[in-house]
Specification:
The protein is of the alpha/beta class and 418 residues long. 45% of the residues lie in helices and 13% in strands. The strands form four sheets. Strands 4-10-9-8-7-5-6 form a seven-stranded mixed β-sheet, sandwiched between helices. A four-stranded antiparallel β-sheet has the order 11-12-15-14, with helices on one face. The structure holds D-serine (DSN).
């Protein structure tokens, strides 16, 4: 048994983890930022590397005994470089927001002007929202998506950039379903003399799997989390041109962080190794196929999708013409065994806590092996849940059906016996 010591020593914690393992196994995961790691990634996280302190970088640590940790960090760096054609990689960021904070620290002074996508148009809190450190420390000017198409209009971005003359342009998103024209962003930045920063947290796995264009060879600096479509442990990476290596490294440590989490670095190396395998391309391809089928099916069932569809793993359903809010929709689906996250729609008239949209992503269910047929089934389940939102019996019936479907698609870690 895998968790023998935990179950014997602390049955309280063990039982809670076991319940969550069952929930993950029995329910449909449509949260766009989530995925299921492999057993190898999970095992790498649960190693004695967690015992070590390694402030500093390979060959230049502030603690002794780091010869072996240097090997694992070097391996993770080399794999990330190969996967993304990066000149320089820092594998130490603890997660997405700290990585973005380090990027800003490396390139900007407080008060500098930056362009970023608005949160309610699909951006991220750390792309300049006023309640976030980014919006408080830097002078963010926000661009949005076109009102009619729901897509980023590069002519509009250029107009704003020429008017505002930012020091940095941020491209990247948490809830934007269309492919990004990295070169167009770079051209605008070159014209106004700005740095380019891409946050590819959501789509890194689709770029690694060669299904979406890679900004790393084009942009000055790129950050990504490692746990979304990239299917690694919770954490992040920063990739940049060699000429910015020193300032980026200095911003991560000692600027933002202390010691890296070496067990997570090992798991990042494992996940990057998996993403380098040919089968990862098949995974990334299937993710995009699945997202398109799921959004098309929902359109056929009468739902509006922001921008009319998707080019990646996610999309946002606009529920403003339906008799259900984003929050209520999230709760109804939760009762039926489907996890989603409510989301704003562009120019949402409702507050972020109870917005008018629902963000759906298929990275996790694709890892389970679900394909076109299951996407059609899941669109039907979502519609049924909404139609029966006040009928507890019917939602429970649906939950049972979903459990049966899920049993045919075990999680990659189901071989770990609880
Ligand atoms: N919280 C992540 C997401 O759900 O998109 C981004 O940080």
């Amino acid at each position: 048994m895998f968790y023998q010591n935990l179950s014997q020593q602390d049955s309280q914690v063990y039982e809670i983890i076991k319940k969550e393992a069952c929930r993950q196994s029995d329910e449909i995961e449509l949260i766009a930022s989530e995925n299921y790691v492999s057993s190898a990634v999970l095992e790498a996280m649960a190693t004695i590397l967690t015992n070590k302190y390694s402030e500093g970088y390979v060959g230049k640590r502030y603690y002794g005994g780091n010869q072996i940790v240097d090997e694992i960090e070097t391996l993770a760096i080399e794999r990330a470089k190969k996967l993304f054609q990066a000149e320089h990689v820092n594998v130490q960021p603890l997660s997405g927001s700290p990585a973005n904070a380090a990027v800003y620290m490396a390139f900007l002074q407080p008060g500098d002007k930056v362009l970023g996508l608005k949160l309610d148009h699909g951006g991220h809190l750390s792309h300049g929202h006023h309640i976030n450190f980014s919006g408080q420390l830097y002078n963010f000017v926000q661009y949005g998506v076109d009102e009619k198409t729901g897509m980023i209009d590069m002519e509009k971005v250029r107009e704003i950039a020429l008017r505002e003359k930012p020091k940095m342009i941020v491209a990247g998103f948490s809830a934007y379903s269309r492919e990004i024209d990295w070169q167009a962003f770079q051209n605008i930045a070159t014209e106004v003399g700005a740095y380019t920063f891409a946050d590819i947290a959501h789509i890194a796995g689709l770029i690694a799997g060669k299904q979406l264009a890679n900004p790393v060879p084009i942009f000055d600096v790129v950050s990504t989390t490692t746990h979304k479509t990239l299917r690694g442990p919770r954490g992040a990476l920063i990739m940049c041109k060699e000429k910015y290596a020193k300032q980026v490294d200095r911003a991560v440590f000692p600027g933002m962080q202390g010691g890296p989490h070496d067990h997570i670095t090992a798991a990042k190396a494992v996940a990057l190794g998996e993403a380098l395998l040919p089968e990862f391309k098949d995974y990334a391809k299937q993710v995009i196929i699945n997202a398109k089928i799921l959004s098309d099916e929902l359109i056929n069932l009468g739902y509006n999708i922001v921008s009319g569809g998707t080019d990646n793993h996610l999309f946002v359903i606009d529920l403003s013409d339906k008799n259900i809010s984003g929050k209520e929709a999230e709760k109804v689906l939760e009762r039926a065994g489907i996890s989603v996250s409510r989301s704003t729609i562009p120019n949402d008239s409702s507050a972020a806590f109870n917005p008018s949209g629902l963000r759906l992503g298929v990275a996790a269910i694709t890892t389970r092996g679900m394909k076109e047929k299951e996407m059609r089934q899941i669109a039907g389940y979502i519609n049924r849940a909404f139609l029966n939102k006040n009928e507890e019996e019917k939602l429970l019936e649906l939950k049972k059906e979903i459990k049966v479907l899920c049993a045919n698609f075990p999680l990659p870690t189901n071989n770990l016996k609880y």
